Amino acid sequence: MRRLKLILSMITIWSVCLSEVTYAQNENTLENHLKEILIQGYGNSFLCSYMQPFATAFGTATAGALFHRAYVKDFLRMDIGINTVYIVIPDKAKTFIFEGEDVPTFFGPFSSEQEAVSGSGLTSLYLSQIQLNLGLFANFEISIRGLNVHKIEEVGEMSLFGIGMKYDMTDLIPIPTFPIDMSVQALYQTYKISDWLEAGTFAMNIQLSKSIVLLPIDIYSGIGFEASALKIYTDKIPDIGENGIGDVEIDGENKLRMNFGFSLTVAIFNLHADYNLGKYNSLAAGIMLVF
User: How far is CA 75 from CA 51, 158, 162, 281, 291, in A?
Assistant: First the structure.
């Protein structure tokens, strides 16, 4: 009997400890940070400042890895594969001024004990998507990209979808045998978290690429403009009672972007990588099957 009581006591203690660990693990999520902001009544202005770096970072990520060559595919020829964008969050995106003090943004340090709303402690992020590039006609190419579930522990599960169009301009350049491929591209990308956050990014760019003679390598570069925004439906966030403040729209600070990269194609496999200069700098890389 004593042994049975001891075992039951140990199971009880273990269960309590496990529940506390689980709570600690789940405490540091975007949903919980937003709940805290709303329940403590920080208001619209605080929420916008807290989340603006989030809008900018994910705007950068969703507008990245759009291309790895300037020329377009022939009719019904395609690339299909996966691209990933990696961003290190800059220090300037981790705090903002509130009532004369530096307080954390979503990317600020995580603490369960500080008086102000905590950040997530997320110092970098990556975003992956499956992408299909399909050649059409009249120098056009369509790109479709997305991922049903992309999970980041501190953010939650995201669903992504994007569609864009590319046009080859090389033939329009009035220089015979112009040695560089040139095109323009526009794409709209969305992402969603549960039913309380929706966001979109619009990106357009001019692309240049050059094939290296006798080598399966292309060098590519581009310059573009992008705009990002997100909307938080605060009344749909679970367990906030009557503390919702309606729909809150937040614009990212994304504007100009430049990138430089290289692409290697061997048989039906393509590997590519590029470095991006923008509001937040990023790296992009991908692997594609080429048909």
Answer: 43, 33, 21, 34, 11
Report DSSP letters for 211-269, one per residue: EPTTSSEEEEEEEEEEEEEEEEEGGGSTT-TT----EEEEE----EEEEEEEEEEETTE
Residues 283, 176: Cα–Cα separation, whole Å: 35
Closest CA to 229 of 51, 29, 18, 43: 51
Q: Is the pLDDT of residue 93 over 80?
A: yes
- Beta-bridge partners for 261: 220, 274
User: What count of other Cβ atoms lies within 10 Å of the Cβ of residue 177?
Assistant: 4
Give the angle subtended at the CA of 62 by the CAs of 51 and 279, to the nearest 5°: 60
Please give the Cα distance from 145 to 153 (Å, whole number). Answer: 22
**Cβ atoms of 233 and 196 closer than 8 Å:** yes
According to the model, what pLDDT value does residue 26 have?
Answer: 63
How deeply is 69 buried, as exposed, middle or buried, from its count of CB atoms within 10 A (0-12, 13-18, 19+)?
buried
Q: Which pLDDT belongs to residue 18?
A: 36
* Residue among 286, 231, 288, 283 nearest 257 (CA): 283
- CA angle (155 as vertex; 225, 35 as ends), nearest 5: 110
- Give the model's pLDDT for residue 49: 97
- Do the Cβ atoms of 291 and 77 come closer than 8 Å? yes
The distance between the two most distant Cα atoms of the chain, rounded to a whole number of Å, is 95
Contact 240, 38 (CB under 8 A): yes
User: What is the separation, in whole angstroms, between the first and last Cα of the chain?
Assistant: 71
Containing H/E element for 209? strand 197-211
CB 80 within 8 A of CB 289: yes
